[in-house]
Amino acid sequence: RHACTSPPHQPRAHALSHPYLHPRPNQGSPGGMAKRFTIAASCLLGHALALSSCPAIGPPAASARWAVLFLHPLGDSGLDASRELARHDAGGFVSGMEEAGVRVLFPSATPIPYTLKGGRMTNAWYDRSGLPPTAAEAPASIEASVARLEEMLRELKASGVPPSRVVVGGFSQGGGIALQLAFRGSPLGAALAGTFTLSSYVCDDSPLWKAVAAAPRLPPLFFRHGDRDAYILPAWGEATATKLGELGVKVDFALEPRLGHSMAHEELASLTAWLHRTLGTGVEAGVKGAVVA
């Protein structure tokens, strides 16, 4: 979806239909996975929230013990992300969450005029004045999405799943807004069990940096970035992870080898294991990566 050139080295081969999901070699689609996925019409955060209308996997809302909000990248929707992850069960994420009784919800960002696309209406969690982290942040759009995600957390709490049993994260811009929710000063975000980001970063001038330095609690963070990402550069993600670690966030960070701006099965397998451990589902799994204390 992004107009960028591929890095000079050969990235991981891919055969899946979606441009931001790369498989293991010879990875097939598990039979029946998509059939077990609850697909609904919409869950646009700019409209009245209803968790029952979000694409979701796992137990019914009334019986769920834990929840994960998986936030899509720029230009996509929750429906796009949910269908791809369900169809291919990438990294065992869908089956792992479903079998552990974790309800995963896939909300969609509200369409906004997106500056880097000439003001065209685009599903985006926030606007950007420029792509590099040196560009000025667009705080109004970030704060609007954080407020909508907070409302979703309130609805989850009312259904019996408090923030302490919820993880919020996503890919690319979805991961970026998850960082803002967790570390920008939101009491609900600070109360999360954890957060994750795949291939994202925080701008240098973000108010997040002052907020995280003063926060009474910092959720743990799972952070992965492709080492051949030519769109969101690996150095940007690594700098964000390092700075968050220096400010006290427990960051599990690793660069994914031979990976561009996409998700990989190995990456999602590590995320799935981290989610089991962070949520306390009782499922034993190994997680690769280095912890930045």
How many strands appear in the DSSP assignment? 12
Proportion in helices:
25-40%
- The fraction of residues assigned to DSSP E strands is 15-25%
Order of helices and strands: EEEHHEEEHEHHEHEHEEHE
Which consecutive residue ranges, at least 5 long each, have pLDDT under 50?
1-19, 23-42, 44-49, 286-293
By secondary-structure content and strand pairing, the structural class works out as alpha/beta
Largest sheet: 8 strands, mixed
Q: Given the structure, what is the number of helices?
A: 8
What is the straight-line distance between the termini? Answer: 35 Å
Assign an overall shape. globular
Radius of gyration from the CA trace? 17 Å
Task: Let me know the average pLDDT.
Answer: 83
Which strands sit side by side, in order, in the main sheet?
A: 2-4-3-7-8-9-10-12
